[in-house]
Amino acid sequence: LMNDDIRIHSWPCSYYLDTSKQWVSGRLLLTPVAIKFTADKTGELLVNFHLSSISEIKKESSNLIFSSLTILEKNTKHWFSSLQPNRNVVFNILEHFWREQLLSSQGTGAEAAALQSTKGKELTGLLTGSQKRLEDTAKVLHYQGEQFDNIMRGLNKIEGDMDVADRLLTELESPSWWPFSSKLWKAPLETKPKETATVSDSKNQEGIIIRIPVIITHRTDSNVKPGKLTLFASGLEISDCNSQVIHRFESKDVDDIRVHTPYEISVRQRFIGKPDTSYRLLSAKMPEAIPILEMQFSKKIQFLEDALGFVGARKSPQVDLGTSIWQAATGLLGGVVQPGSPVGGREGMDNDQAQLQKQEKISQEEAKELKQILKKLKGLALETEAELERQDEALDSITTSVDRATLNIDKQNRRIKKLT
Questions:
Q1: Beta 256-261 vs 54-60: how paired, if at all?
Q2: Using an 8 Å Cβ cutoff, are 233 and 140 in contact?
Q3: Which single residue of 193, 273, 307, 382 could bond 259 by disulfide (Cβ 3.0 to 4.6 Å)?
Q4: What is the pLDDT of residue 167?
Q5: Angle at the Cα of 301 (from 299 to 306), degrees rounded to 5?
Q6: Pairing state of beta strands 245-250 and 235-240?
Q7: What digits encode the pLDDT tens for the residues 225-248?
């Protein structure tokens, strides 16, 4: 239902109505699954068909019709002209969503032909999706943990440098008749710089979290072009069809991400005295990337009105990431196997396989596969929980170190003022 209601884009244009042999002005509307055309004068819906029923989208022209777009739907050819802002924009966006719909429907069609959908398959799909999301979360948390480690190393170096500064100030504050030489503070200066070489080069080692095809608009340009969006733990990268990088945003560079619809976002970096760097990205696969962006840029992401229904439907209340994911998975499994009877802790886990096999629609192989996925899910959830606890402790240490450094700086400033 959500897919029918979501309005990805609409464009003013004219449609050739074959019954009356005339052009009718109105709006061409694209949803994630369908194309529609509504006449301006009457408000009548003249065109309404599923993307999967399209066999061809072409740019055409003739002696009578210039700069038109044709869509071959089953045996009917639909003509659209006077497209705004221009024909190329509409063509690129329609073709992208048609191709993605075609790919997904082919995949599901092949699966349906080979095997009818069963509860076991549904559960495997759901839990595999959960596993993938948890793995993505773990990648982001791992990178975040590395950053905390780097911060701690930096703070330790600052503390070492401040000890050196403290000794220097003590030397300067000492009276001229003080018998000791400056050798006391020279040795530590020599030993500190080695720390900089240990900063991890995670950029070269980090993996891709997700890569999706996108339609790219740069700033307020009316032209669009197809490309790819790649999400890393450290940021995101926009590239063209030939995998040439158009722009890479490090996490710190991103000032805001706006989610216009579940299928369209904009990413912006602000500058003082020059134009912002801004990209608008549209993709049929964007719903897969948004949860990862939300996790990475929780304080910078904004869901606009048309996207609020999507986030509300998808989100559940924020709960503990460790045991809750495991409980949700086993609870879901138990609910399908024996509806109405809750699955409790380890006893439910031990009986999962036996219960699954009682269900007519779940085979022994599916039961084994589900049990393996659940084991992986539990392991990932516990690892994620442990990493979050470690990062909480690291944050406490960082806060303490920063407070200590601030006090030391204030103290040294006062001492420098006295000397000057």
A1: unpaired
A2: yes
A3: 307
A4: 72
A5: 140
A6: antiparallel
A7: 899 999 988 889 999 988 899 999
Determine how β-strand 45-50 pairs with β-strand 34-39.
Answer: antiparallel
User: 200, 146 in Cβ contact below 8 A?
Assistant: yes
Q: What are phi and psi of 109, to 5 degrees?
A: -65, -45
Q: What residues does 279 pair with on adjacent strands?
A: 218, 267
Q: What is the pLDDT of residues 53-85, one digit of tens each?
A: 999 999 887 556 568 899 999 889 999 999 988
**Rounded-to-integer distance, Cα 362 and Cα 364, Å:** 7
DSSP 51: G
Task: Please give the C-alpha separations between residue 222 and each of 172, 216, 218, 282, 324, in angstroms, as whole numbers.
Answer: 65, 10, 8, 14, 46
The CA-atom distances, in angstroms, between 382 and each of 25, 138, 139, 375, 378 are 59, 11, 14, 11, 6
> CA 406 to CA 86: how far, in whole Å?
57
**Cα(129)–Cα(388) distance, rounded to whole angstroms?**
22
Closest CA to 389 of 322, 298, 326: 322
The 10 Å Cβ neighbour count of residue 359 is 16
For the chain, the first-to-last Cα distance in angstroms comes to: 74
CA 315, 318, 319: angle at the middle one, nearest 5? 130
Yes or no: say if 419 and 357 are a contact pair by the CB < 8 Å rule.
Answer: no
Domains in the chain, CATH or no CATH each: 9-104 (2.30.29.30), 208-307 (2.30.29.30)
Across 113-147, b (16+ Cβ under 10 Å) vs e yields eeeeeeebbebbebbeebbebbebbbbbbebbebb
> Which letter does DSSP use for residue 85 in this model?
S
The whole-angstrom separation of Cα 158 and Cα 152 is 10
CB 355 within 8 A of CB 334: yes
Question: What is the residue-wise DSSP string for 313-360?
Answer: HH------TTHHHHHHHHHHHHHHHSTT----HHHHHHTHHHHHHHST
